[in-house]
Amino acid sequence: MKSTNGLNMILVALLAAGIGWFAATKMGGSTGGSPTSASTPADGSGDGPCPGGAAPAYWKAPMDPTYVRNEPGKSPMGMDLIPVCPGEAGGDGKRIRVESALIQSSGVRTAPVERRDLARKIRTVGLVDYDERLVSHVHTKFQGWIEKLYVEYEGQMVKKGQPLLDVYSPELVSTQEELLVAQAYRKSTGSSAFEDISEGGDELFKAARMRLELWDIPDSAIERLLETGEVRKTLTLYASNSGVVTDLMAREGMQIDANMNLYTIADLSRVWLYADIYEYELPWVAVGQRGIADLSYLPGRVFEGVVTYVYPFLDPRTRTARARLELANPDLELKPDMFANVTIETDLRPDVLTVPEEAVIRSGRRSLVIISLPGGYFEPRDVELGIDSGDGWLEITSGLSEGELVVTSGQFLLDSESKLQEAVQKFLRSGGSKESDDGEMAPMDGMDGMDGAKKSRSEPGMEMDMGMDLSEHDMDGMADMKSMNMESDAGSPQAGHSMPATDE
Prior knowledge:
Elements: H1 2-29, E1 58-60, E2 68-69, E3 82-84, H2 86-89, E4 96-97, H3 100-105, E5 109-112, E6 114-130, E7 135-138, E8 144-149, E9 157-158, E10 163-168, H4 170-189, H5 195-214, H6 219-228, E11 234-238, E12 243-248, E13 255-256, E14 263-266, E15 270-278, E16 290-294, E17 303-315, E18 320-328, E19 339-356, E20 361-362, E21 367-373, E22 377-388, E23 393-398, E24 405-409, H7 411-429, H8 452-458, H9 475-479, E25 487-489, E26 492-493
Antiparallel strand pairs: 1-2, 1-3, 4-22, 5-24, 6-15, 6-19, 7-14, 8-10, 8-13, 9-12, 10-11, 12-14, 15-18, 16-17, 16-19, 17-18, 19-23, 20-21, 21-22, 21-24, 22-23, 25-26
């Protein structure tokens, strides 16, 4: 039993020593005094921790930059506060300094501000359509019947001068006969001594011929009629231009009237491309600009055209206006109603100051970039933007100079750090050196909620009574640990133990 009491006393002594060490450490870290490690004077006496022995601007927690003190001490996590030298503080709160290791780990990349020729590119979708000036319609100006069709289906290719159909018209037959009669009368009166008679024959002949010409009878057919003197029962109509038959209403044996459209022929050697332009893009689009189109069914092929017209009204459903481009189509690869991706290159702006698009941070009413300065310093700067090229470059009209380095990756982290240091500087300039009753600086505006560790220390009921007096407790009662019987059964020690029971 004496050996058991000795072991119990050793355990109690170790427990008391541990509690005392924990109490001393906890109370020392919350007193607001200097750390037990080598403290650094901050009175500007020339032996401060900053270069040249300068005193730091303030002290901050290594893991919580919002925990700021005027003197060295401990952070809520029990870590030594680190000094922030005047140069690192940025002076006006705009410049920040970042260690090279953090720059590399954060993936910060930079790009130079440079001059280049810049043009805004408008990307949209377009629809291929016929060139309306190259579409022709085939009509007759007299009533008749279709005797024969030479072009019988839509989509058929025709060439200029190719026969389309034969038409029989009694009215046309009688007009041909009248022309032959007028021709014979002019010959018989041409040698008359009376001038009025000879002139009357000429006028009659001209009137009969004019009637056929007004019906669009070709001159070749009229001359053949005058030469042969044979009246043809039917008249052959020919294609006035080359192209594709897009509409066919004629059928053999069908009666036709003067107002019927028999054929529609479209020349596809040149097509129109309608591009949809949004309202905010309209000021950039003008006649004469170059346009490029590509189609999904012809990967790798590019068709170039020119903007020939911008329509002066908007589609109320899509809120877009149409810009018309003309494209050459010699191989007939562009077909009406095809969709195309369209890029319109607006007027070129030569030698303008530009930065990569990813370097600009847009916050609604302002745009800013992060400038990389020598020595690991960074500075946020407001800029004014010009045109957007659409291919990754933005024009800068003010705020930057050629050759400066702008951050293109990781700038949001640097912007947050800049705002944090700016808040610290404003706090210090507004009398932040005034400390609270417990020796800590008052919390910065806008930083509430970020010092949860500090608040938890001051909440009622959260403190631990580390000043307990162990002498007040019954140490003899603690020594009476023989009540903790190490045996599961009387006289049967637990496995792994060989502590025989003894009697006093």
